[in-house]
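Troubleshooting: if your tokenizer reports a length mismatch, compare against these two reference records.
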Amino acid sequence: MSVPRGLAVPDKKFRSFFVHTWLDGGYKNLFLSSEGASLVGATSTVLAKRQIEAREVAAQLERTGLELAADRRNDEVIEQCDAMIDLMAALFGVPSRELRRLGRTGNDISRLRQIAMYVAHVVFRFSMRDVGRGFGRDRTTVLYACHLVEDLRDDPDFDRIVSLAERVAIAAFRDRLGR
């Protein structure tokens, strides 16, 4: 009879014994025998399952940390886009609920929302997807708005309006932007 190093059989009478351990989501009684390789096999099985369990817990904790960081980022994006909507509404004298309204709105409200999306994209350096999430719109709507505002900036009067909105946003969010 060979007993693996580090494991001692208490008495020659005890050639086998039970181990009460946590496996597969519950406590299990494992029958361990000092005869042959069954003791080694049982202990290595216990160790292997514990290692797998530890890896799964570590992966879950890492995933949870990443999800928390993503949630914090989403909250930050929504908060800053809400602040941008409020700022543009105050700057142009329009109720902010009109800018937040889902669905279609009048041309003047739509144009102001497009300017706000453009300024959020340019000033905050948010992706189209982030701006869309913050404004409650699809990223393709934001893409369309940004292209439209860029094209309309060829008109000097429109360019002055957008430049004013950019300057006000930069001044209002200077602390958050780190500029």
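Reference record two:
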Amino acid sequence: MSLTGLPLILLTWALAIAAVVATVRWWRPAGRSRVLVRVAGLVAIEVLVVAGVGLIVNREDSFYPSWQALGGGPNVVEVASARAGRLDDTLDSHGAVAWSPPAAEAWHLAGAPRLIVPAEYASQADRTFPIVVVLTAATDVPAAAGAVTVVVHPSVETAASALSTLPESLGEDARVTGRMAILADPEWMGLAHGWPGHPPVIAGHAPAAFAQADRDLPAPLAAPENLPSLAAPLRPSSPGSPSLGSPSPGSRSLGSPSLGSPSLGSSAFGSSSLGSSW
């Protein structure tokens, strides 16, 4: 089961719900096991909820892309090679190419959409490119730098929900990623803002708008190069070198407050250590 997969997240939350139900059911058992049952139930609920939230965050940001990375193994991130699009032999940097995917009929456009690829599209066959959708009636639309431009001519019957299939259709014909930005003329701003997923929307299709789209495109996710390992033991420091938790002269260590600043866990009536009992 993948560490970033949805089945593991669903299983964890299902166990958390089961732990809540079981704890409520056995909250008042007879005999001396009452305290043990309550403590075990509350601990199980807390651990499962924290694990569920952590799995969701890890799925979004890929802090630990695999069980091997979580266990302290080599931080290897598998990157799928770019799959060739069906129109790769036709697409080049010399102009727009008419695009007629099977899903276009449901888009109710005023004209066939056009594809414009950047200059490096043909020479970098192992690379995928983000998408810039231009909603306009104009025909003189330039190419976006470093992205595949899709010039779309909407009509009054075009719906944003129908256009939601455009990225998937484009993925069959060109080497694109799921990163997308929309440039729209004033009359099509409402259509752009209604696009499912709410990608960045920029008004107009002037060069400044393309530059803004390049800045607003969501950054690609990448796993950090050095992932902290839960299984990596702390190595003792060599003589003369600062060890973990021992600050160097003149510097403040984490958790050691300076004069005049309250310590962690101190109250307004006096300071107390973090582990002090009531």
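Descriptive notes for reference record two:
- The two ends are 44 Å apart (CA to CA).
- The first helix runs from residue 6 to 25.
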